[in-house]
Amino acid sequence: MSLTKSNGGHSEVVRLLYQISKENFEQLGDVQQETLYALLDTYRQMKVQLKKIMNAVDNSPQQSADVRMYTEEAYDFIDNQLQKYQGRVSTATEYTILSNPDEDSYIENFMQHCKGRMRWTECYLAGRKEGLFLTYKSSSTLKSAYHNEKSKARKRKCIEKE
User: What is the DSSP annotation of the chain?
Assistant: First the structure.
């Protein structure tokens, strides 16, 4: 059901939720595989937020009927989309991690000597010639694994600071 067709479409809370979702979606990357991961991550995060909203609405009767209805519709939509797109993620990319410290060092060194944007295909091919990146299907899987590993490392640092 469309937001504008919903009875809650005129609610400030609903419009705010819609705007936040729209802004999150617009910030996604353009590369297909990365976009798919970003989309899945956004859907997962949105499901968590919608659950929190539904729980909060249960405790506040004001505007709860409209907001609850929209939130449940959005939750169902996101759940369906999540199931739809999870099957499209390649398993090689999804579960690959940088396990070799030499590979990580090689990438970091390549980045330092690279002028302009990182050239993942070039890095991948050069590393393969040196016996690295043999577990990766393509430069895309290498790039994805590298960024996933760095993202996990940043999250670990944030948790340690708390």
Answer: --TTTSGGGG-HHHHHHHHHHHHHHHTS-SSHHHHHHHHHHHHHHHHHHHHHHHHHHHT--TTHHHHHHHHHHHHHHHHHHHHHHHTTS-HHHHH-----HHHHHHHHHHHHH--SS--HHHHHHHHHHTT--TT-SSHHHHHHHHHHHHHHHHHHHHHHH-
- Last-in-domain residue among 34, 54, 89: 89
Which domain does 145 fall in, by range? 93-161
Instruction: Please write the tens of the pLDDT for every residue from 95-117.
Output: 445 557 788 889 999 999 888 88
Same domain, 125 and 65: no
Q: pLDDT by residue (tens digit) across 72-90?
A: 788 788 777 777 777 665 5
pLDDT tens column, 30-66 = 455 667 777 778 888 888 777 877 777 776 666 677 7
